[in-house]
Write a structure and sequence with these properties.
Layout: H1 2-34, E1 39-41, E2 44-46, H2 51-63, H3 68-82, H4 87-109, H5 119-132, H6 134-147, H7 156-183, H8 193-212, H9 221-254, H10 264-314, H11 329-336
Antiparallel strand pairs: 1-2
Helix pairs in contact: 1-2, 1-3, 2-4, 2-7, 3-4, 4-5, 4-6, 5-7, 5-10, 6-7, 7-9, 7-10, 8-9, 9-10
């Protein structure tokens, strides 16, 4: 018996270690991708989209609080890639770990569903998971820059805004995609593969042109988002939003298209406003459409059950689940006697 218990404990420890290493590796890989493109505001370097925050929140929603050691390890690896270990590193480590953990706790508190099938789930992810939860990482991170004299107090709010929006964008775009990937059924349904291919080709052709055009026509991406949300719900709209955000970030960091001849502050404001509104539109619109479709299916199923009950009653049969009524014949005979 003791051997069985020891083997079970060993297995749990092995699973925990493997899960921690996997979460840390995913966080670090996402961090390296996010660092490929960055902007400089008030001498501080930040990324317009910080994917690790989305990875962290998704891992917590899937694995629970057991994922936080992996997140902390991933944060440490990213920080060590950027700079040497120092006392202020502990502050950034705590802030970047606490932010997704607090976001997860708030989402669990309101009954968040990982399938994002309700509008309230989309709103919770936006306002609790992204906008509220990431206040912690932005405040702690920029605060450490001020404390260590790497940033003046006059530049606090501009850097804080850029940091906060970058972390929030990671949650808005990356977390829904990872949750959908985790719940996806294989093989996928390819009933509309021709339309999906057409949408993908059209998006790949239009989005680079729009984001790099000297004429400010960024609004032309919204019909693509609406098309993707109406026909393919969350997976289509979020993939379209992710690709558009990446292309807009590339254009902004290169100073091309609608971001030409703008100051760093203006580039940051324009890019973050565009990415934020686009991600909000894609997430909330697809959540509304999914909720309406689920409601319609529930109503259709209820109507079908009602039709079956009425058919049984019309035919003189008892509805399913109820015993047949006793025959009236014997009672009439007894009355005649």
């Amino acid at each position: 018996m003791a051997g069985v218990v020891g083997n079970e404990e060993l297995r749990r420890t092995g699973v925990f270690v493997l899960r921690t290493l996997a979460v840390a590796a995913c966080y670090y890989a996402a961090g390296r991708l996010g660092l490929l493109r960055n902007l400089v505001v008030e001498g501080a370097v930040f990324t317009p989209i910080w994917p690790p925050t989305g990875v962290a929140v998704a891992c917590l929603l899937v694995f629970g609080l057991r994922a936080w050691p992996g997140i902390a390890l991933g944060v440490l690896l990213v920080i060590m890639h950027l700079t040497a270990l120092s006392p202020e590193v502990l502050g950034n480590l705590a802030g970047n770990t606490a932010a997704p953990v607090c976001a997860y706790l708030m989402l669990r508190r309101v009954g968040f569903r990982t399938d994002l099938s309700r509008l309230r789930d989309g709103l919770a992810l936006v306002f609790l998971g992204a906008l509220t939860g990431m206040l912690i990482s932005a405040t702690v991170g920029v605060g450490m820059l001020v404390i260590t004299d790497h940033l003046t107090t006059g530049g606090f709010w501009s850097v804080w805004l850029a940091w906060w929006v970058g972390d929030a964008m990671g949650v808005l775009i990356v977390t829904p995609l990872l949750l959908l990937l985790h719940a996806a059924r294989w093989p996928p349904n390819l009933s509309r593969w021709l339309e999906a291919t057409g949408l993908a080709v059209f998006t790949c052709a239009v989005v680079p042109l729009v984001t790099h055009s000297t004429v400010s026509v960024l609004f032309l991406v919204y019909p693509l988002l609406i098309w993707a949300a109406l026909r393919f719900q969350l997976v289509g709209s979020m993939l379209c939003a992710l690709f558009t955000s990446v292309m807009a970030t590339v254009a902004a960091t290169d100073g091309a298209g609608p971001f030409r001849e703008l100051t760093r502050i203006e580039v940051m404001i324009k890019l973050q406003a565009f990415n934020g509104t686009m991600a909000l539109t894609a997430l909330l619109l697809s959540a509304v459409i999914t909720e309406q479709r689920n409601t319609r299916r529930s109503v259709e199923a209820a109507c079908q059950e009602l039709v079956e009950v009425l058919e049984h009653l019309t035919a003189g049969d008892a509805p399913r689940g109820q015993p047949p009524r006793e025959s009236e014949g014997p009672r009439e005979e007894q009355a005649g006697r």
